[in-house]
Amino acid sequence: MPDERKIIHIDMDMFFAAVELRDNPQLQGQPVAVGGKGDRGVISTANYEARRWGVHSALSTRRALELCPQLVLLEPHFEKYKAVSQQIRHIMFQYTDLVEPLSLDEAFLDVTQNKPGIELAVDIAREIKQKILAETGLTASAGVSYCKFLAKVGSDYRKPDGLCVIHPSRALQFIDALRIEQFWGVGQRTAQHMHRLGIFNGQQLRQFSREGLVREFGKIGYMFYDFARGIDPRPVVTEHIRKSVGCERTLEHDIDQQANVIIELYNLVLELEKRIQKAQFRGQTLTLKVKFHDFRNITRSITRPNPITEKDDILPLAKQLIEGVEYENDPIRLLGLSVSNEAAEEIPQRWRQLYFDFYTDYFSE
Ligand code: TTP
Ligand code: MG
After folding, report:
1. Could you read off the pLDDT of 192-204 as tens digits, one per residue?
2. What is the pLDDT of residues 31-59, one digit of tens each?
3. Residue 353 lies in a domain
4. From the CB of 363, is ligand 1 less than 6 Å away?
5. CATH of the domain at 229
6. Does some domain include residue 351?
7. Is any atom of ligand 1 closer than 6 Å to the C-beta of 13?
8. Dist CA 12 CA 141 (whole Å)
9. How far does residue 143's CA lie from ligand 2's centre (Å)?
10. How much is the average pLDDT of 236-261?
11. Of residues 20, 49, 100, 106, which has the active-site annotation?
12. Is 106 a catalytic residue?
């Protein structure tokens, strides 16, 4: 059966930086980034002027200033971002209750049925963008399609202030020409892996068998196989299901001694337990994230048949995960722990794990 839903993805443009620029208009035209100062600071986001210099999210502030010495670095104001986030969500709810926020500045809407009874989803997307601009003074980009994958790709396609509609009849044509980097779930590493296989766009991705993709990429291969065919059955999930609960800490100093690592891990476990209790979260997968001194990241996960909620469950699992990590000659810069994988009945089994895996929670508080 063809997928006849009407899905919109809204994503604010250079969100934190846009809020700061709105409130400091004298900085317009200059390269601006929001991020942490100091030796171990990290860039949250940058405006387009700064991006031209290679400054982007997650880059170390030190490196950003090397690339762009005239960069204006601003501290984040999370209260402001949360307030804008509420404003835009309020606008979305005027059209449908099926709103699934992915982060402060991003959400999916299913407008197949919508409150004002508007026929074309593109008209809703346009109205939402106009209202966001009028009420917050900020621009958003919107993608409109029949599934989440294409709506999300669409919102990114004509940024900033973009509006991109991918009609079902043109989906395959669109996917054929889509660069592999633009696929949902393809980060730098996966892109390189794809390139090694000779895959640079959607058309080339579609030449690969399902088994081949699963062999190369693990279970995410199933998702790539479906995406290449314009298939993404994931529903817009409304009630605030948290996909993960986690915390991470950039250490004061890089560490490579086992005793120190265990102490840091123990502190994280205590913090994680607190957050799990606060969120009443019952995840079955524990994930350890390690960032090394050279900014290389790895994650290690373990899944249990029962929810992981208490420190007495978490600590032995966390120790087990860190045992598999070589850090003696590779000091650790950051440690993170999260739980995910809370069962959600309405998501088809094959998609369930993928769905959770793809949620990145940068607002873990
Ligand atoms: P994004 O929507 O990924 O980026 P953006 O809104 O800054 O830029 P774009 O125009 O490309 O959408 O993230 C939204 C906000 O989340 C971003 O403004 C800052 C924050 N953020 C981080 O703090 N760290 C990160 O690594 C990322 C990706 C985002
Ligand atoms: Mg954004």
Report:
1. 999 999 999 999 9
2. 999 999 988 899 999 999 999 999 999 99
3. no
4. no
5. 1.10.150.20
6. no
7. yes
8. 6
9. 12
10. 86
11. 106
12. yes
How much is the average pLDDT of 82-111?
94
356 inside domain: no
By alpha-carbon position, which residue is closest to atom 20 of ligand 1? 44
In a domain, 358, yes or no: no
Q: Which ligand is nearest to the CA of 11?
A: 2
What is the bridge-based pairing of β-strands 163-165 and 140-145? parallel
Domain residues for 251?
Answer: 244-340
Q: Which ligand gives the minimal distance to the CA of 17?
A: 1
Report whether residue 159 contacts ligand 1, using a CB cutoff of 6 Å: yes
Distance 243 CA to ligand 1 centre (A): 19
Please give the distance, rounded to the nearest whole angstrom, from the Cα atom of residue 133 to the centre of ligand 2: 14
Indicate whether 127 pLDDT > 60: yes
Q: Which residue has the tokens 């940058």?
A: 46
Q: Which residues of 117-139 are buried (b: 16+ CB within 10 A; e: fewer)?
A: eeeebbebbeebbebbeeebebb
Candidate of 10, 49, 55, 57 to mutate for ligand 1, largest count of ligand atoms within 8 Å of Cβ: 57
Is the pLDDT score of 362 beyond 60? no
Half-sphere exposure of 235 (CA within 13 A, CB side): 12
Q: Which of 6-15, 264-273, 353-362 has the lowest mean pLDDT?
A: 353-362
pLDDT band at 251 (very low <50, low <70, confident <90, very high): very high
